[in-house]
Q: What sequence folds into this?
């Protein structure tokens, strides 16, 4: 039936021009609403790491935080915060500390109270015979005095890197495979300094140790804490409540000897 013979109830279709005009006005109204009434991002959006996220602290505050970090040996076996707070800090750092291609090759063990003391007692038992035989009584006395501080600490964090996870990352990123062992060291180093700084900001004294240099300690730690045979112990962060004032900052080289700027 032609439009001329259409019944009164049947309306002719709108022209393409009319539809375009209507669409144009809808777009204008939408743009006006967007700019005049912007929506605030939700808290989850702010913390998601998107390009529009709001920084939670200033760069100055962040730098002041890790500038406070020291090697502190005047500690005891008490804690200024609940265990749940230590666990929370560790978990947050493990989740957010960077790793190459998000490979997440680090593995971590938190020891608190008697569990930390037991670990350092086992380290003492493990290395004593070899040091006495190779270096003598005087050297052992030095080691035992330092180990006594660790046995008397409140807690320890053991940092491992898993070679199986490194190999998995190498398989996924073959062009960069040769760099992953080095990147693994970078990742654990970043996690170590973040945790070290965070715990001292909570009121602990802490120091980073490397008794993993003794192969028997490596073997003992892997077996004792159920780590896979592909794991390697990289460092131990020892902490406890401070029993003396916070140490002063050590002297640093002149900045013009360590930094070059070109512009």
A:
């Amino acid at each position: 039936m032609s439009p001329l013979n259409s019944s009164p109830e049947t309306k002719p279709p709108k022209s393409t021009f009319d539809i375009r005009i209507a669409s144009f006005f809808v777009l204008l109204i939408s743009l006006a609403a967007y700019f005049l009434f912007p929506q605030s991002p939700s808290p989850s959006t702010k913390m998601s790491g998107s390009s529009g996220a709001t920084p939670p602290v200033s760069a100055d505050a962040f730098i002041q935080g890790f500038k406070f970090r020291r090697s502190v040996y005047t500690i005891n076996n008490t804690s200024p915060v609940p265990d749940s707070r230590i666990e929370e800090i560790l978990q947050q750092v493990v989740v957010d500390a960077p790793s190459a291609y998000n490979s997440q090759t680090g593995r971590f063990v938190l020891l608190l109270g008697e569990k930390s003391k037991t670990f350092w007692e086992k380290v003492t038992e493990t290395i004593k015979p070899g040091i006495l035989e190779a270096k003598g009584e005087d050297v052992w006395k030095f080691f035992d005095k330092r180990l006594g501080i660790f046995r008397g600490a409140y807690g320890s964090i053991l940092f491992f890197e898993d070679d199986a996870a490194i190999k998995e990352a190498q398989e996924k990123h073959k062009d960069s495979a040769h760099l992953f062992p080095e990147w693994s060291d970078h990742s654990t180093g970043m996690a170590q300094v973040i945790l070290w700084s965070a715990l001292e900001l909570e009121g602990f004294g802490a120091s980073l140790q490397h008794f993993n240099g003794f192969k028997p300690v490596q073997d003992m730690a892997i077996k004792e804490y159920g780590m896979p045979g592909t794991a390697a112990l990289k460092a131990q962060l020892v902490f406890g409540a401070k029993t003396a004032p916070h140490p002063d900052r050590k002297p640093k080289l002149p900045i013009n000897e360590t930094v070059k700027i070109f512009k």
Summary: The first helix runs from residue 16 to 36.
